[in-house]
C-alpha cells in the first residue's frame, strides 16, 4: 500500500505489514519517509489509544498541516485491543491518499 502526498510517495509497505484501526491504515515506522514529516504542536489525546503525535506532511515551503499522526507510546490496553503494538506506526488523512 502507498501513502501519496502531492504526487510523492511518502510511505509504502505490504498491506500485511500495516495495521487497520478505526478506518485508518497505520504504516510501520520503517516504511515512512521521515523527510516528508515534521512534528506538529497540535495536541490530542485519544481516550483509549493515548497521547497522539501529529505531523505536517510536505517539503520545502509546501506543508499540509496535521495530515499524519502516530502514537509513540500507546496505552497498554490499546495494544491489547488492536492485538499488535502500533507504537510509532503512522496514519494519514486529508491531503494524503492511501491506496493499494
Characterize the structure shown.
- The protein has 100 residues and is mainly beta.
- The chain has one domain: Metal Binding Protein, Guanine Nucleotide Exchange Factor, Chain A, CATH 2.170.150.40.
- It contains one helix and eleven strands.
- The chain has a six-stranded antiparallel sheet, with no helix packed on it.
- The longest helix has 7 residues, at 76-82.
What would you say about this model in short?
It contains one helix and eleven strands, in the order βββββββββαββ. With 100 residues, it is mostly beta strands.
Name the features.
100 residues, mainly beta, Metal Binding Protein, Guanine Nucleotide Exchange Factor, Chain A, six-stranded antiparallel β-sheet, 1 helix
Give the topology, please.
Elements: E1 2-5, E2 8-12, E3 19-21, E4 24-27, E5 37-39, E6 45-46, E7 50-51, E8 53-59, E9 62-70, H1 76-82, E10 90-92, E11 96-99
Antiparallel strand pairs: 1-2, 1-11, 3-4, 4-10, 5-8, 6-7, 8-9, 9-10
Averaged pLDDT, please?
97
Percent helix, as a range, is under 10%
Can you tell me the CATH topology?
Metal Binding Protein, Guanine Nucleotide Exchange Factor, Chain A
The number of distinct β-strands equals: 11
Q: Secondary-structure element sequence?
A: EEEEEEEEEHEE
Under CATH at level 1, the class stands as Mainly Beta
Measured between the Cα atoms of the first and last residue, the distance is 4 Å
Strand content: over 45%
Oligomeric state of the chains?
A: single chain
The tally of helices reads 1
* Uncertain runs: none
Amino acid at each position: 500500500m502507498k501513502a501519496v502526498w502531492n504526487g510523492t510517495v511518502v510511505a509504502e509497505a505490504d498491506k500485511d505489514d500495516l495495521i487497520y484501526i478505526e478506518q485508518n491504515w497505520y504504516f510501520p515506522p520503517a516504511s515512512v519517509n521521515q523527510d516528508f514529516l515534521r512534528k506538529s504542536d497540535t495536541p490530542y489525546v485519544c481516550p483509549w489509544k493515548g497521547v497522539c503525535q501529529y505531523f505536517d506532511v510536505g517539503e520545502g515551503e509546501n506543508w499540509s498541516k496535521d495530515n499524519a499522526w502516530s502514537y509513540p507510546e500507546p496505552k497498554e490496553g490499546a495494544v491489547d485491543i488492536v492485538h499488535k503494538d502500533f507504537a510509532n506506526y503512522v496514519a494519514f488523512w486529508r491531503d494524503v491518499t492511501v491506496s493499494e
